[in-house]
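Researcher: Hi, I'm a grad student and pretty new to this. My advisor asked me to get structures for two proteins we've been looking at. I'm not sure of the right format, so I'll just paste the first sequence and hope you can take it from there.
Model: That works fine. Here's the first sequence with its structure tokens right after it:
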Amino acid sequence: ETPEPVVVQYTLTVTTSDGGSVTEGGTFDEGTEVTVTATPNEGYQFIGWQDFDSDESSITITINSNQEYKALFDYEYNQFNFNEPPFGGTIFITGDIITSSDPSLFDKIEYDGVFLRNIYDRRLEETSQGPARDLEVYVYTNYYSDGTTIETLVNPEFTLEESRIETEKMAFLIGQLPYALRRDLRFVVVNKGLNPWGGGGGGILIHTEQTAQYEINEYWDGIVYNSNYVADISQETLIHEAAHTSLDARYYPDRLTDGEKWLEAVALDGGCYISNYARDNPLREDIAELFLLYIAVRYFPERISDDLRDKILSCAYNRIKYFDSLGLDMSLYEN
């Protein structure tokens, strides 16, 4: 009696880098020919296979062992050369990167009472009291659907009812930030005043008259109103300030790390800074100025023009790739 032939099977595993999709693998009989195809997403290009010598996006493989292939993709863009930063300040470029219609993880707020806290207030910078003071403030706890919480500290110059309105407003906006921008955020301070927002030291500073200007297409620069910006840049500004709070200390030199990788990326980009503000304050504003535009390029390319995307990548390609390499929790934008 002739024995049944032994069928040997092997596993083909196919993975991909960010920026594209690939034909799935599976389990196949020995000797089977399988064609695997890599397809880039919009704004990306296929650049090859890891550990496989072919630049063709479709390859045919004969299955004779357990095999693994990875398709590699990269940003595709037209290169511009800059002698000066392409922008003055990045929060003003567009109000469409994150909008009020985007989802928020905000769940609820709870009023905790009035407590003595040391709060920052830019209106105090020119006084003998300095930029911060001890003050009995309204304290709220903000709850988010991913299990995180932060406090909102509201200046008593607001009524209790007004403090709740301001807290809910900011709590929603903060819920539109991915975890990577909230991981070191412990509190938000809300004051009146026409003064810029701020970020760092575990907190974000809000001045509500400035908020109104961010929302209505005007920005106060200390001298005159400038009204040539796209309306409602409050979400973009909050991303900038949250980057100060949750990214700066982790990636700049002489803070929690030596910043070697960041400095290498800046050098590889030829020292191009995305804005005048970043150029003039390279170890304070470069990350915050760029991270907003990184979000646009990486997660919402359809919300910016091709020309804007080309400018961002032409100036800061290596810093964009550096952000990609960090494994930041940006799942709110991915989903």
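Researcher: Oh nice, that was easy. Here's the second one.
Model: And its structure:
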Amino acid sequence: MTAATVLAALVALLLLPLAVTALRQRTLVTMAMRNIRRRRGEAALVVAGALLGTAIITSAFVVGDVIEGSFSDAARAQHGPVDVVVTTAGDADITDVGKAVEAAGIDGIDGLLATTTSTGTLEAPQHDAAVPQVTVMELDVTAARGFGAHPAITGLDTSEPLAADGIIVNRPTAEQLGVQTGDSLRLHAYDATVDLRISQVAAEVGLAGYAGAIVAPDTLGDLAEHSAIVAARPSTQMLISLDGAVFDTRDL
């Protein structure tokens, strides 16, 4: 059933009482038509006012739906199964956080994923292009696929485990760089550089939207460790997924 059919049915339903009244009270119809002809200006104002009010109400609904849709799409594209992010302070070990959460036996948790994030510059030498500031996240792709209610909401459901020199970039990052699967990239971070090869260009969904690029474990740590100047070390995070899909975990 199309939207036009539904709208036509609603209009017919709303006009039905008027049609019944017109058939039963013909005098009222005659008086109404006579008044419209005698007071054309007033009738035009009434119709115009009704149209303006309808337009205002409709536009308000449209704007509200657009705003709500943009928020919903951000949840799908940039967070996916991620409901809670725990960031460690100082030299705390993120694995200890995971052990503490598991030991607490908190109800409603269906996934934990340890990650390390940082910002860096991605360069595509063969295209003479670069993204000066992109969020880079290192994680275990195999563990990430099973994080949350369903692999599809991670954005990595078709991803293979990353080689030491592999990198996954999401589609917006790839478009900015003009690259595709198999191309070489150069990651600059912590006054150090590493050459990587794109193993996949992923859709901007879930974990593939949470960061612009995903690298194998220890990639960021090695860059920071071998750098002479480290202003701020990579941030270790524990991503937590709650029971349910993307949009139904608010109560938890």
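Researcher: Is there anything I should tell my advisor about the second?
Model: You could mention this: The mean pLDDT is 85.
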